[in-house]
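This part of the workshop introduces the protein records we will be handling. The structure tokens are whole numbers drawn from a learned vocabulary of backbone shapes. The record below serves as our worked example for the rest of this section.

===
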Amino acid sequence: MRPLLLLSILTLAACDDGVVTPGGEPLPNVDGIWAGNVAVAPAPGGVVLGNNTTRPVGYFVIERELATRALWGPCTARTGCPTVAVGERKTVPASQISGVEAGKRDVLVYWWHLVEGRDGALRPDSIRAVPARVGD
């Protein structure tokens, strides 16, 4: 048992980033993890997003029940996507949130960081979801 454990530790130590695939090849460094989170809270007539990460974030907000049926994808354009800058607090009004109406105030806030792939195309690092409620 000990030789296997030692071999595993040596294999991990030999890789540049310490992560290997099941086949033993190192995973590419995609530079896609940043400290912090996105805080979401009700705001009068909307929700407020606070970017507490070290990079700008893209976001999409949708009413919770509609989210189960909606076909959407994260915006990955270099310009024109809804974003929240580092340290910024941004209010998204209910009028800009699909599906929100008098009896439907629960929303999901999806957010991500964009990373550039080896081909130069932007893609989300991962998509996180935070439940929230539109304020009165």
Summary: Residues 1-32 have pLDDT under 50 and may be disordered.
